[in-house]
């Protein structure tokens, strides 16, 4: 009987609030739910559960800056939720973060993704003065875009793997290598047991190391290469 009485007391003591919609943009919805966990003479303690769900059919991305020449990221959240009358650090806000990707923009910003249909949750506690209701606000701190809206840097994520040439349906394997102190950025092509090295000579184009009459031009939007030879042959490579 004593155990039952204690359990009933705890159930009465913890009171839950309904799920509340806070923000919405491009089908990305931010909601929160509060649970009053504890009451004291001067303050009430709450649990806040924040959920972000992408209800659209599109993956959305946002940029995260990094320090020059490093991958130390600065502010990787895309939503900030604040309890404005909190007596603790939550008055400054809590950031919600998407998933990191391997995509990098030409400005050396890294992309994070909020995947279609995925939910991202966060839970924290805070205290406010007794007899006051929590004042919850939020905002999107990043602009959400589709992947096509970013000017991406050509890197291993895009290049590495098998490609099929429109000329003869030939399978080609490409491997991307970043620039280092000894040489410029290049692509290693393997086809029919032979290897060729393509040196980057502009943002989206490469020339063959042993013969600059051969070139590759990368179309970032279509994710294809155009191969051109000095004798006028032109082929399209697709993954």
Order of helices and strands: HEEEEEEEEEEEEHEEEEEEEE
Number of helices in the DSSP assignment:
2
Structural class designation? mainly beta
Coarse morphology: elongated
The strand count comes to: 20
CATH class of the largest domain: Mainly Beta
Rg calculated over all Cα atoms: 27 Å
CATH topology of the largest domain: Immunoglobulin-like
Biggest pleated sheet: 8 strands, antiparallel, barrel
Poorly predicted ranges: 1-13
Strand content: over 45%
Strand order of the largest sheet: 13-14-15-16-17-18-19-20
Give the total of domains. Answer: 2
Overall pLDDT score: 88
Q: How much helical structure, as a percent, in the residues? A: under 10%
Overall CATH architecture of the largest domain? Sandwich
What distance lies between the first and last C-alpha atoms, to the nearest angstrom?
69 Å
Explain this structure to me?
With 239 residues, the protein is mainly beta. The chain has two domains: 15-149, Immunoglobulin-like (Sandwich); 156-238, Lipocalin (Beta Barrel), CATH 2.40.128. Helices cover 7% and strands 53% of the residues. The strands form four sheets. Strands 13-14-15-16-17-18-19-20 form an eight-stranded antiparallel barrel.
